[in-house]
Amino acid sequence: VTYKTKGTPADGYGVSGIDQAVTEAVIAGTEDALRDVNSIDVPDSAIDVSGLNADKIFHVRLSSYLPGNITVMSEGVVNVTVRIYPVSEREISVPVTGIVLSNLPQGYNISFGDVTAVNITVTGEQSVLTALTVTGIIPTIDLSGIKEGDNTLRLKVTLPANCTLKQNYTVNVTAESVNG
After folding, report:
1. For each of the chain's 180 residues, which pLDDT tens digit applies?
2. Which CATH class is domain 87-177?
3. Which of 24, 45, 109, 152 yields a CA-CA distance of 20 to 30 A from 120?
4. Residues forming CATH 2.170.120.40 domain(s) in the chain
5. CATH topology for 2-86?
6. Cα dist from 70 to 12, 44, 74, whole Å
7. What is the distance between the alpha carbons of residues 75 and 30, in angstroms, rounded to a whole number?
């Protein structure tokens, strides 16, 4: 049994997870009918999280998502709990020495000038943010299109699940040809 959600929780809230008591179901039907069923896919219309600001239990009737000639022999109605959390923010100082330089063209040196760190704001679940350290993220800049001199590049940041950047960030770098 697979479940999908749709919608966005109320402002200031996010979905931390889905707890489904049932991940498998016993079904019965003719051999031909059963051959065509590999899973019961509960569509996003059954679990709409729009506007939620607290956990919610959805009661899902599995037979609604099967052909009429197949019967659910196990639990017919399952409870799916969507866990909602208040979104928190945390500012993290990312040292420029920790930024991964991807696609650095040969023959160039890169410098960040006087900048030693970039401050980013991460949003997410408080417990995740509390445990988050600069070693738990991967900041990267793509240098494939740089030109000699000053360049402003987008900072991409890989974060833990359920965390996002509050906004996009850029980094100023100077590219200098090694050959002069």
Report:
1. 899 999 999 999 999 889 987 888 899 999 988 988 989 999 999 999 999 999 999 999 999 999 888 999 887 899 999 999 999 999 999 999 999 999 999 999 999 999 999 999 999 999 999 999 989 999 999 999 899 999 999 999 999 988 999 999 999 999 999 875
2. mainly beta
3. 109
4. 2-86
5. RNA Polymerase Alpha Subunit; Chain A, domain 2 (2.170.120)
6. 42, 22, 12
7. 20
